[in-house]
Design a protein that fits this description.
Layout (H helix, E strand, L loop, with lengths): L39 E6 L14 H8 L14 H4 L2 E6 L7 H17 L3 E6 L5 H12 L2 E6 L19 H7 L3 E11 L6 H10 L1 E5 H7 L1 H12 L3 E7 L21 H9 L5 E8 L10 H30 L1
Parallel strand pairs: 1-2, 1-3, 3-8, 4-5, 4-7, 5-6, 7-8
The structure holds 4-carbamimidamidobutanoic acid (ALG) and zinc ion (ZN) (2 copies).
């Protein structure tokens, strides 16, 4: 988008009630309605064949879209109107083979390559956590190895499940093995719960991950945690992956592998806001499984997380555009 074009924003909810019409993320236009080009493309990946417990995250993207009808155009927490700063559009779903994980992983990577080649950043709505691997592959082709901030109850650096390399518990081990992550800037946030053994932690540390547990967030507070994460990330290209089970089941019951003792949605949103100066190149929100949700608690939390991430991206896009035009 050039500076002369005004982004096409969401449907005006004072004219068309927010519950009317088909749901796109935040009631934004579809990507094809803005000529196939957007600064940020919100895209769904309805895939959950990689789960180890409850299925259902294939319905997560559309549940988040439905819950996002209530998002308003001005974000006071970041003093920004994200959808006016840059063109954000809903790119629909990447349709993948539910019966063949390896093929699905390839399809996701190809679709992400295509979207990134248009200049868009990706705000992906899962789907289970398997999808982070092809998304990271694609992002790394464009930016080189990226810093990773991974919000999750789980490490997701396990090796294989039933001999399968691509599952929702293994994407980040594969990513480290493939050299697509910048191993000097890898962090898990919200980690908790029983593991298979102490070795899980040793393996994870060897890969380069730092861990901020959900108890650390509670004890040390969101500002200190955000400062620490910002320092670790620096100005590296950053990918943020949010498994909604980073939140306590009270804040996100609608997920496949819930663990007690998690962060609140307020803590998650505040940490994200504290990262507004980071160079966020793409992000995902995964593992929303609406069948176990109540009153859209989980999908509302996920829609707000995606809104904060989108705000960070659009602020950076607008700042970069201004700087370019000043030259
Ligand atoms: N929810 C995600 N992504 N991973 C959980 C894997 C935990 C397990 O099955 O042991
Ligand atoms: Zn998880
Ligand atoms: Zn996960």
């Amino acid at each position: 988008m050039s500076s002369t074009e005004t982004p096409r924003g969401p449907v005006d909810s004072s004219r068309i009630p927010r519950y009317a019409g088909p749901a796109t993320f935040a009631r934004l236009p579809r990507l094809d309605e803005v000529g196939g080009r957007a600064d940020v493309a919100v895209v769904g990946v309805p895939f959950d064949s990689g789960v180890s417990y409850r299925p259902g995250a294939r319905f997560g993207g559309n549940a988040i879209r439905e819950a996002s009808r209530l998002l308003r155009p001005y974000n006071p927490a970041q003093d920004a109107s994200p959808f006016a700063l840059a063109q954000v559009a809903d790119g629909g779903d990447i349709a993948v083979n539910p019966f063949h994980i390896n093929e699905a992983v390839e399809t996701i990577e190809e679709a992400a390559d295509q979207l990134l080649s248009t200049g868009a950043r990706l705000m992906t709505l899962g789907g289970d956590h398997t999808i982070a691997l092809p998304l990271l592959r694609s992002v790394a082709k464009k930016h080189g190895p990226v810093a990773l901030l991974h919000f999750d109850a789980h490490l997701d650096t396990w090796d294989t499940y039933f001999g399968a390399a691509y599952t929702h518990g293994t994407p980040f081990r594969r990513a480290v093995e493939e050299g697509i992550l910048d191993t000097s800037a890898l962090s898990h946030v919200g980690t908790r719960g029983p593991l298979y053994g102490k070795q899980d932690l040793d393996d994870d540390a060897k890969m380069g991950f730092g861990i901020v547990t959900s108890a650390d967030v509670m004890r040390r507070g969101v500002d200190e945690i955000a400062d620490q994460l910002r320092q670790r990330i620096g100005d590296r290209p950053l990918y943020i992956s949010i498994d909604i089970d980073c939140l306590d089941p009270a804040h996100a019951p609608g997920t496949g592998t819930p663990e007690a003792g998690g962060m609140t949605s307020r803590e998650l949103l505040e940490i994200l806001r504290g990262l507004a100066s980071c160079n966020l190149v793409s992000a995902d929100v995964v593992e929303v499984a609406p069948a176990y949700d109540h009153a859209e608690i989980t999908s509302v939390a996920a829609s707000h997380a995606a809104y904060e991430l989108t705000t960070i991206m659009t602020r950076q896009i607008a700042a970069a555009r201004e700087e370019n035009e000043g030259k």
